[in-house]
């Protein structure tokens, strides 16, 4: 696959124009946020978030975090495998 093609998760939310929330280190997935540095993957929205927004999403300390720091954007398959392998997310719902 060419390097300049961004693979967007088919189940991502919200569906933004362009690559918002889909490039590691790029623009945060939060609609009103324009920060760069999105390195936190959200297990529910399949998007990348900046540290500030990820902290806000993970505000509940009595539940497992929804946003986890990643070194690169997980592929669609990797994202689903991570979600299924981590039963904490099922237990928290």
How would the global form be characterised? globular
Please report the total strand number as a whole number.
3
**Parts with pLDDT < 50 across at least 5 consecutive residues:** none
Rg, nearest Å: 13 Å
Q: What percent of residues adopt helix (DSSP H or I)? A: 10-25%
Strand order in the sheet with the most strands: 2-1-3
Distinct helical segment count: 3
Write down the oligomeric state. single chain
Describe the main β-sheet briefly. 3 strands, antiparallel
Calculate the mean pLDDT score and round it: 81
- Helix-strand string: EEHEHH
Question: Beta-strand percentage?
Answer: 5-15%
Short description:
The protein is an alpha+beta fold. Helices cover 24% and strands 9% of the residues.
Describe the structure.
The chain has 93 residues and is α+β, with helices and mostly antiparallel strands. It has one domain (11-93). The protein has helices at 51-57, 76-85, 88-92, and strands at residues 40-42, 48-49, 67-69. A three-stranded antiparallel β-sheet has the order 2-1-3. The model has no long low-confidence stretch (mean pLDDT 81).
List the defining traits of the structure above.
24% helix; 3 strands; alpha+beta; three-stranded antiparallel β-sheet; 9% strand; 93 residues
